[in-house]
Amino acid sequence: MKTKLFLTVVMLIVVTSGNLFAEKKTDIVPTYADSKPSYDDVLGYNEFYVCVGKTADDKADIKKIEGYVRHRFCYAPKGRSQLEIIKNYEEAILKKDGSVFPISNKKECIKAFMKKGHPGHGMQNYEYMQLPNYAGKYFSGIIPTDTVDFYICVVTGNVDSKVVYSLVTIETKPMDKGMISLENLDAGLVTKGHIAIYDIYFETGKSEIKGESYDALKTIAEYLKAHSDKKYLVVGHTDNVGDFDANIKLSHERANAVARGLIVDHSVNKEQLKSHGVGPASPVASNSTDNGKEKNRRVEIVEQ
Hints:
Layout: E1 15-16, E2 19-20, E3 36-54, E4 60-75, H1 82-95, E5 99-100, H2 106-113, E6 135-144, E7 149-159, E8 162-172, H3 182-191, E9 194-197, H4 214-226, E10 232-237, H5 244-264, E11 273-277, H6 290-296, E12 298-303
Parallel strand pairs: 10-11
Antiparallel strand pairs: 1-2, 3-4, 4-8, 5-6, 6-7, 7-8, 9-12, 10-12
């Protein structure tokens, strides 16, 4: 019978350099049921290297992620395999509407995992699985929420005929909030297949793009040109205020305007882009509040 993860709730308060950080829920996924934790290190606001997929030439795509980092090193229950540990975490992340990163080069992913210095325990590097003959499997994924995103990394190994694993969770701000960047474009498209852009601005009820949208368009263009082998949809969205058909028309005109700006002003290959408008048909929040309406008014880049 398959062992399921059990959920414990731990609130962590971390003090670093005199600053009090808010409570962090870095146990978004718990340790495997009946595991025996050996270390539980709260590293505070830090950085960690995560494999977020693979590149066009099938190499490991490693990103340095900043956020609240927690590392747990555990002995798995007797009789559990490394593969079972990995599959269990994959299932846990998918059940929370998360995404699993595709892994192409396990050795590179494990090597990146070992980059982070360890806070002690008498070991020179991160932990036991620094040794190549110990580390066996690698897993990474992400669980997005409305307020934060959780990156999850698991490395399994075999030490003295016992299955061990490291579980690292990184709590960071959502990748599609705030000014768009090459990093969160890449992370959003890799993990979700789409990303919402909130810093392309239009006049109310019109499709002309405001001048303050230039930096966002430039960043998107840089990303598209760096991934010229792929095609994307530019999708316009509105809130539900006004006539439905008029909103569909407006959203399509805005998507066209964004695609045209990328092609004409930023030299993106027109064969990469196709525009579409869905009006209020695909909200990400309730239109009953002003905040919800603001979230629903957006342009999305969607990988085809």
